[in-house]
Amino acid sequence: MTDPTPPTDTPRTDPALLDALRADLAGSDYTVEGVEDLLGPLAAAALHREEAVPALRATVGTTDPRAALVRAFVLGVDVPRAALERALGRLGVAGAQALGLVEAAGAGPDDAVRARVDLRPYEAADGLDTDPAPPGTPGATGTAAATNAANATTTNAAPTGTVDWWVASDLGELATGRALRTDHVLGVGGASTTLAQVTVRDARTRALDLGTGCGIQALHAARHARSVVGTDISRRALAFARFNADLAGVARDRLELRAGSMLDPVSGPGEALFDLVVSNPPFVITPRSTAAGAAGAAGAPGDVPLYEYRDGGRAGDAIVRELVTGVGAVLAPGGVAQLLGNWEVRRGEEWHERVGEWVEESGLDGWVVQRELQDPAQYAETWIRDGGTTPDRDPAAWAQRYGAWLDDFASRDVEAVGFGIVTLRRPLDGPPTLRRLEEVTGGVRQPLGPAVAASLAAHSWLDRRDDAALAREHLAVAPDVTEERYLTPGHADPSVVLLRQGGAFGRTVRAGTALAGFVGACDGELAVGQIVGALASLLGVGAGDVAADVLPSVRGLVLDGLLVPVGG
């Protein structure tokens, strides 16, 4: 299947020119580390806050090729043609024009060249180990991709947990100084990186990136799935996704791009199922009414722009509900779906009640982690600013849109908005057995993908074992677990024992005397039942009482990865 026809205002692909671009970017050390080294810690930190002045100062008056690339493709300022020619020695400005990356005022060395796109280095740890990748897999680093460009369709790269690519998107507000266009194609933001790092990365046959945007999740999926389908309602986004995939060296026959909304592009007759679905959907809750409300002039339109990359065209949190309840239709048995989302917390409800209903309706195993909770005012401020409107730049529009958001939330009695990670799995057989909805707002140890995969596997392992079968198993303490003991002065026995997980979700479990003793004996040598019996003798109580006390907690420790089965 051929890609949808790309719009004219998006990058174009050409194998020879992309090879040259890739080599130029790698040769200039245009990497995350290289750019931060050029800018220095002060300017780099300011740039992460969307403040350009320190970066502009750090890149002026130098012939370093990285400076020309940063000024053009990140900061969006004009650069002399000669400076960009030096940075793009193989591609040249003419080649960059042919790819749709820049526009030039003339052919003279001092004539201005301006970027048409944002093109910046990207680095992230996605938790994939070093197992051999399928043919046509993008290399782990940009330098490797440049070296292997000529063999991009047959290279057997060995991916590691950290990737190093370049990603093109539309220039942002920092570069243009204007509010975003409604069909803006977003680059890699915090949510994209979060999803990439929580996604399970074991080998998969067929993966779907629903709402692919610039294609970053598809790039990650291509590292461990034999084939990937990326979908988006925006044809501009699909054009950027194809450009980024080609630049990263993903073979064309391993990434298919389709236009359409939600699951429509992959729901036709005879469509093969997916064993991995990832989605950073347009989940932002945006007012659908045009009424300005109290903040605007009477009868004036609400004028809340709808951005394709974030607004799904549904009222409230309906788009997330639709995806949670419907994604099972395209999941193969054993298949996993992971997505980010917002959900409304309405008056008189706990956050997990509403989301729990969606998970029940899905008919899938479900694990939801709420990471953040905002009140309606905080939420409105976040997303009004995201679109480029500020109270300083346009106070009237700011007040009008703020009021529209508050009116919209009030119409549904919304008291807060949650943000989190949803993991769903179609059971291999039988009904779903995993129902877990929890709030984890503290720091976590990314990448979480391996921990999520291990927890899903642990749930299946536990589900197949009743307490009698569990008693025959051998367990060991995970290497990242430590124990803290708190003693009252003058007392020999601790008053509090805490088990702390150093990785993954960084969980802390308070352990009673029996559980602490049980965990302390888990070195893989003794079976669970043997440890329970020894504790019963030591404590002078029945083995059944000890088992009833500790085994539910032991199951929780196995599920969360603090205890791990030995020998299967």
Automatic annotation (TrEMBL):
One Gene Ontology term from the biological process aspect of the record: methylation
Domain DUF7059 span(s) in chain numbering: 29-114
Domain Methyltransferase small: 191-285
Region ranges (Disordered): 124-147
Biased composition (Low complexity): 138-147
Matches recorded under PROSITE patterns: N6_MTASE (PS00092)
UniProt cross-references to Pfam families, sorted A to Z: DUF7059 (PF23186), MTS (PF05175)
GO cellular component: eRF1 methyltransferase complex
GO molecular function: N-methyltransferase activity; nucleic acid binding; protein methyltransferase activity; S-adenosylmethionine-dependent methyltransferase activity
CDD domains, alphabetized: AdoMet_MTases
Keywords, alphabetical: Methyltransferase, S-adenosyl-L-methionine, Transferase
InterPro entries on file: DNA_methylase_N6_adenine_CS (IPR002052), DUF7059 (IPR055487), Euk-Arch_PrmC-MTase (IPR052190), SAM-dependent_MTases_sf (IPR029063), Small_mtfrase_dom (IPR007848)
Gene3D superfamilies: Vaccinia Virus protein VP39
Family per similarity comment: Belongs to the eukaryotic/archaeal PrmC-related family.
Protein name: Methylase of polypeptide subunit release factors
Protein's organism: Cellulomonas cellasea
Source organism phylogeny: Bacteria, Bacillati, Actinomycetota, Actinomycetes, Micrococcales
